[in-house]
Automatic annotation (TrEMBL):
Keywords associated with the record: DNA-binding, Transcription, Transcription regulation
UniProt cross-references to PANTHER family, sorted A to Z: HTH-TYPE TRANSCRIPTIONAL REGULATOR GALS, LACI-RELATED TRANSCRIPTIONAL REPRESSOR
HTH lacI-type domain: residues covered: 12-66
Origin: domain of life: Bacteria
Pfam families named in the record: LacI, Peripla_BP_3
Protein name: LacI family transcriptional regulator
InterPro entries for this protein: HTH_LacI, LacI/GalR-like_sensor, Lambda_DNA-bd_dom_sf, Peripla_BP_I
Length: 342
């Protein structure tokens, strides 16, 4: 590496690598940019020259040639407080996406858009093609951005079915939300529970909508009536909703909560009200986060593979970026995990 006039070391150039390897600059460029059309002995000579000189590609120039940034965005339309809370859903999604991208030597760009201004900023960033593709998780309402990006030719994969009427098909990864909830409520019915309530998730999110649909579907063929309170997947909302349910129907004997955190809040209220779980009131959650094993009593819940959702989103996105076709819907299974609370 040569010294510049100001005493700093100059970065080795493509020309220097070409001279060291005894090949043309164009050949070095093809090898550095991942071309497979160069003979293996020549590729090895170039790689050896790169190591010896300490050459580092200029990523900005490389992206102009390849039209790739080697990065992908994960957009979370939530506030930073929510994303970095004790809700393991966000940790699991980010971990799964990051693991898959890391294995492919790609960079994760995390974009949080919990306000109108934040959403506008994220929209400008992604539409400017700073990333090769975009993933969405924890979406609220009928967000037009995924379809708009697809119309621009930017690959997109969502976690959960996008709400609203899209003018283009938006690929997504989801779990069997309805089937998982039906199995949970059926378990309560089979155990003889008569007054089965639910703490539903937010009704501007597909997970909240589908889990409430599953609850109502399971009760449809029984003589039980629906008893519903709405939460937002947080522990605090589960506490408020459980108090509301006890006020509305003091004789309820079972509760399905659409998240484990809401179930945790419900358990606390039931304990304070002197209701024994599961003797007086059975409780089932959804997620199977680590905490579910350590509640008092341990929580029966519907397991969804949160980390696998993230990995599958990243895997499908990289296939789209590579120009491959993918299935529009990737559905992962859920599983009822029986513990002591029901």
């Amino acid at each position: 590496m040569t010294r510049a006039k100001n005493g700093t070391r100059e970065r080795p150039t493509l020309e220097a690598v070409a001279r060291r390897a005894g090949v043309s600059r164009a050949t070095v460029s093809r090898v550095v940019n991942g071309s497979t059309t160069v003979a293996e002995p020549i590729q090895e000579a170039v790689r050896r020259a790169v190591r010896e000189l300490g050459y580092v590609p200029n990523l900005a120039a490389r992206s102009l040639v390849t039209q790739r940034t080697d990065s992908a965005a994960l957009i979370l339309p939530e506030t930073p407080t929510r994303v970095f809370s004790d809700d393991p859903f966000f940790h699991g999604i980010i971990r799964g996406v990051s693991m898959e991208l890391d294995a492919a030597d790609k960079q994760l760009v995390l974009l949080i858009a919990g306000s109108t201004a934040g959403h506008d900023r994220v929209e400008r960033y992604t539409m400017s093609r700073h990333v090769d593709g975009v993933m969405f998780a924890s979406m609220h309402g009928a967000d037009p951005l995924p379809a708009a990006l697809i119309r621009m030719g930017i690959p997109v994969v969502c976690s959960g079915r996008p709400l609203g009427r899209a003018t283009v098909e938006v690929p997504y990864v989801d779990v069997d939300q309805i089937g998982g909830v039906v199995s949970a409520v059926q378990h309560l019915l089979d155990s003889g529970r008569k007054r089965i309530a639910t703490i539903a998730g937010p009704q501007d999110m597909v997970a909240g909508i589908d889990r409430l649909t599953g609850y109502r579907q399971a009760l449809r063929d029984s003589d039980r009536r629906s008893i519903v309170a709405i939460g937002d997947f947080t522990r605090e909302s589960g506490t408020v909703a459980m108090r509301q349910l006890l006020d509305d129907d003091p004789k309820l004997d079972a509760v399905f909560a659409a998240s484990d955190l809401m179930a945790h809040g419900a358990l606390r209220v039931l304990r304070e009200a002197g209701r024994r779980v599961p003797d007086d009131v059975a409780v089932i959650g959804f997620d199977d986060i680590e905490m579910a094993r350590y509640t008092e009593p341990p929580l029966t819940t519907v397991r969804q593979p949160i980390q696998q959702i993230g990995r599958e989103m990243a895997r499908q996105l990289m296939r789209l970026v590579a120009g491959e076709e993918i299935e529009a819907v990737t559905m992962l299974p859920t599983e009822l995990i029986i513990r002591e609370s029901a």
